[in-house]
Amino acid sequence: MNRRDLFKCLPALALANRMTGSPRGEGPRLRSALCAYSLRNELKAGTMTYDDLVRLAVDTDIDGLDLTVYWFPKTEDSFLLPLRRLAYRNGVAIYSISVRTDMCQPTPELRAKEIQETKRWVDVAAKLGAGHIRVFGGDVPKGHSEDEAAGWVAEILKRAGEYAGANGVILGLENHGGITLKAERVIQIVRQVDSPWVGINLDTGNFRQDSYRQIAMCAPYAVNAQFKTVIREKEKGEPADWDRLTKIFADAKYKGYLALEYEEAADAATAVPPLLRKLRDLTRKYSAVS
Q: What topology is assigned to 28-286 in CATH?
């Protein structure tokens, strides 16, 4: 088939996909990843480096890295660019960074400061080639209502999201307790921002009741996902049903990364590799595109 014949076929192929519900156009496309927080003790102690995370991704045959930035030795080019090159040369996507933010800021001055700090991390993400940043909403200050605080978070996300979008970076608001304790509030904030550059960083272990229901509510808005080994119900933990969770994302036609975020007490160096392989296999099981 020559180029002219190929282009003639494309409209018919697109129509066939729509009529048959072909997953290549509309179905899920899941990718496996590791959140650097899983190796927090090793990174903090210096027994592992971010370069080592790239090598671990290769060894476990996963697709990407979500780099928690807390242990970055610096944010200058001398650190960021060699790390980006190493990942690229090993076929590993540094697709996300995870940062600390507190967007429940009651004064315009504090909100402006938070916006500037978020912009700084957008610049870091762009240097690494990451298209996503995980951010936190924060806690409602005493003397203020949740509705007030949600408005502040939306304001910061909207303004920071404009800068992020101009640099090709998406902000993912995590369900991380505080103002983002419940799915309804997280969704309300994201919908209020109403930006293609702002969505939900969906952490499967952070809801405190009806976790699977709340995860399913948020899944259509997810721009990144972090998989925990435990589902917490009213502060008590139970093993997470990863097959059920992955199906929730597949049913929502999610296209993106599912990143292991290991938080348990058992040695991460031993526990993480088999968990990554399990997550990799699930993404392939439920993904419409291999």
A: TIM Barrel (3.20.20)
